[in-house]
Design a protein that fits this description.
The protein contains 15 helices and 8 strands. The radius of gyration is 32 Å and the shape is elongated.
């Protein structure tokens, strides 16, 4: 499928417009960063309390938010989460409180405040305990006292086994949440008498706290450090790969034959890798700037989106650079900027197809994916657009600028990456022309 038939856009003639647009976006992001006092880090990086709650039905997010506000918890992070491997997780809700003071007492107080707010939304019947929050030891003691199987008060071992069976049924078979105590009759060894005995002092609560994670500022700082390292390692690895990939084994030439020609040859193609990495840095910085502008938080899922953006932008740039390298062999007498323009035009339909379809997918995810995926989807939406633009608006002009510098400074004639002919090739051409005239 081709959207354009033989396009002939002069991309490199518009370099100043591309650079101006990038400078504006970077400045907007930088000003937003200054006004905001830095990036907005989520609980993953800043520290705080994360409580995962599973509900029997659709999570009442609005009620939970209002109850937490009444407890004076400010603006908590509330987002639905789910695990495809666990169907019961479709009703899970993750409640997060940012770290304020950093002491363990303050973090514990935040966790207790979340529990208190949930208890106010779903009050327990008088004199009864929530079976979904029961532990095996307490349940075994209760069954031993009630003795529904008429085994005698000294029969502790059978009731311990029965309690373990009921807890296993609740946690494994029902995903940690039973909606009715009558369902316990399906558990092994649970007779109607056992269920009736439990109904005297227990009830099936509409929610259960699945996990509680408390992260201090030290753990958040460590995760931030690791996230920065992961991004830098990815960029460094790509720089090395692209430089060697486009050098055509230039390092091997350096060891096989010394000389300025081979040195410049490798440097020429190393610039391809450097330009691609600069373009990726450009994409990440603009994306982070827009995160500041629209007040999105940086979380681990956003780091995953940024690393995805790095790979996506690099792939699009390599496609164009590969075509440039092919055209350098076919269009040796053409000026280098025209070779780059031709290469971009030849890959234009492919770029529109891949980037356009990816953009539509992540746009739907941003609009309909819910609050839990909003930051991730926003990073992908911005990344696809900026990553595609930077391939021809930033990376390609860098290579053209280097070529312009190279043709003025290179000591041994133009290299294979210069868009011109080397001195050896020009000598061979002159000899062939002379032989033809004779």
């Amino acid at each position: 499928m081709e959207f354009f038939k033989s396009p002939n856009f002069r991309w490199m003639a518009k370099t100043k417009y591309f650079v101006s647009l990038s400078v504006i976006l970077l400045l907007v992001g930088f000003v937003s960063w200054l006004r905001q006092g830095g990036l907005l880090y989520g609980i993953d990086f800043k520290g705080g309390t994360l409580v995962t709650v599973r509900f029997a039905g659709t999570p009442p997010s609005a009620k939970v938010r209002a109850a937490l506000a009444q407890e004076g918890l400010g603006a908590p992070s509330i987002q639905p989460i789910s695990d495809p491997a666990d169907p019961a997780s479709k009703n899970d809700l993750q409640i997060g409180l940012k770290e304020t003071g950093g002491t363990s007492q303050q973090l514990d107080a935040g966790r207790d405040a979340i529990k208190l707010a949930l208890a106010k939304i779903f009050p327990a019947p008088a004199g009864k305990q929530d079976f979904n929050a029961a532990i095996a030891g307490e349940l075994a003691d209760y069954l031993t006292q009630q003795d529904p199987l008429h085994l005698g008060l000294s029969a502790g071992a059978p009731y311990k086994q029965l309690a373990a069976s009921l807890i296993h049924y609740r946690d494994v078979d029902r995903g940690g949440l039973v909606t009715s105590l009558a369902d316990l009759a399906k558990a092994p060894d649970a007779t109607p008498a056992v269920v009736a005995s439990l109904e005297k002092s227990y009830y099936a609560g509409p929610y259960v706290i699945r996990s509680t994670d408390i992260e201090g500022p030290a753990e958040g700082a460590y995760l931030r450090h690791q996230a920065v390292l992961a991004t830098l390692y990815a960029l460094a690895g790509m720089l090395i790969y692209v430089a060697f990939r486009f050098s055509g084994g230039g390092l091997l030439h350096l060891t096989a034959e010394a000389g300025d020609f081979f040195l410049w040859r490798w440097i020429d193609f190393a610039i391809f890798g450097l330009a691609a990495v600069i373009a990726v840095f450009h994409d990440v910085l603009i994306t982070l700037g827009l995160f500041c502008l629209f007040h999105f938080e940086i979380s681990l899922t956003v780091i995953a989106a940024l690393l995805t953006l790095v790979g996506y932008s690099m792939n699009d740039t390599i496609v164009i650079f590969d075509r440039v390298r092919e055209n350098l062999r076919l269009m040796r007498r053409e000026p280098f900027p025209e070779i780059v323009d031709r290469s971009i035009n030849q890959t234009l339909s492919r770029t529109i197809l891949t980037s356009g379809l990816t953009f539509l997918a992540v746009l739907v995810l941003f609009l309909l994916g819910g609050e839990g995926l909003r930051s991730f989807a926003f990073a992908m939406v911005v990344g696809v657009v900026v990553g595609t633009y930077s391939s021809f608006g930033i990376a390609a002009p860098i290579v053209v600028a280097w070529n312009h510098f190279r043709t003025r400074k290179a000591p041994a004639g133009a290299s294979p990456g210069s868009g011109g002919r080397s001195s050896r090739e020009k000598t061979a051409d002159r000899r062939m022309a002379a032989a033809g005239r004779r």
